[in-house]
Amino acid sequence: MNKKALCIGINDYPGTNNDLSGCVNDANDWAVELGKRGFSVTKLLNGQATKSAMVTAIRGLIGAAREGDTLVLTYSGHGTWVPDSSGDEPDGRDEALCPHDIGTRGPLLDDEIRTLFAALGKGVRLLFLSDSCHSGSVIRGREDDLDAGGPRARFMPLEDWMSEDELPRGIAQAPRVVSGLRRTGGDLLLAGCKDTEYSYDTSFQGRANGAFSYYALKTLRERKPSNYDVWFNAIREYLPSSRLAQTPQILGSATARRFGVFE
User: Fold this and answer.
1) Do residues 217 and 231 make contact, with C-beta atoms less than 8 angstroms apart?
2) Fold classified for 3-257
3) pLDDT tens profile 221-261
4) Is 133 designated active site?
5) Is position 78 annotated as part of the catalytic site?
6) Quick one: angle between helices 228-235 and 211-223, nearest 10?
7) How does pLDDT run across 177-219, given as a tens digit for each residue?
């Protein structure tokens, strides 16, 4: 059985005025944790994470896997949306990840990711951890580690990467998140928030991170959860909170949710 991971972190979005701070730290933190757990890790950071490179790396990760293998894909960066062209989205939008070169190559659409995930072989486990970015209901979660100051949403407005003549008309430009990706082929999706919320880029104890990634790693290390459901419930003790109005999501079969974490 092989364990392989791809960790993507993008702070730098040239020409958009929408750079982030904690995404590279997220990717590096996931890579260290996964490395300790026996994973062979590949990273794509900032300029390395072009759309073409992301597609190639995801395709390679999935295509090389064999029955019994465990795969992990982590993404920290902006999320965005485009008008749905295939008619498969009730809200009229395709959610998307934002590669480093989104300004010239466009986003990586959920439809494209589903196609990549559909190549997953029988008996291969895949966990997709998406920490990208609207604000939902607020409950009181713990904020012990959160620094003062305002968190920043990991959402890329269309007008910041799309030309004026391409901007959609008649569709309200509410922020969308990539957590709306449908599960096809992969075992589990752990996402930072609902479709209707933001995921936040912020700072903890003087260091920039995504809120979801920070609390996911914190609970993983401190609680040593026995399965994904237990881990997810631990994360939900922290999110959403009064300053971080994001509700993490877990999507997958009941069986997959009871798998041992990263096993």
Assistant:
1) no
2) Rossmann fold (3.40.50)
3) 999 999 999 999 999 999 999 889 899 988 888 888 999 99
4) yes
5) yes
6) 120
7) 443 344 444 488 898 988 778 889 999 999 999 999 999 999 9
Supply the pTM of this predicted model: 0.82
**Dist CA 259 CA 166 (whole Å):** 44
CA dist., res. 158 & res. 175, Å (int): 9
Give the Cα separation of 24 and 107 in Å (integer). 19
Alpha-carbon span 36 to 16, nearest angstrom: 36
Query: Which residue in 78, 98, 100, 193 is the catalytic one?
Result: 78
The residue ranges of every structural domain in the chain are: 3-257
DSSP letters spanning 22-90: SHHHHHHHHHHHHHHTT-EEEEEEGGG--HHHHHHHHHHHHHT--TT-EEEEEEES-EEEEE-SSS--T
Residue among 91, 90, 94, 107 nearest 10 (CA): 107
Q: Which amino acid is at 71?
A: L
- Encoded amino acid at 5, one letter: A
- CA–CA separation, 20 vs 9, rounded Å? 10
pLDDT in tens, 10-60: 999 998 888 999 999 999 999 999 999 999 999 999 999 999 999 999 999
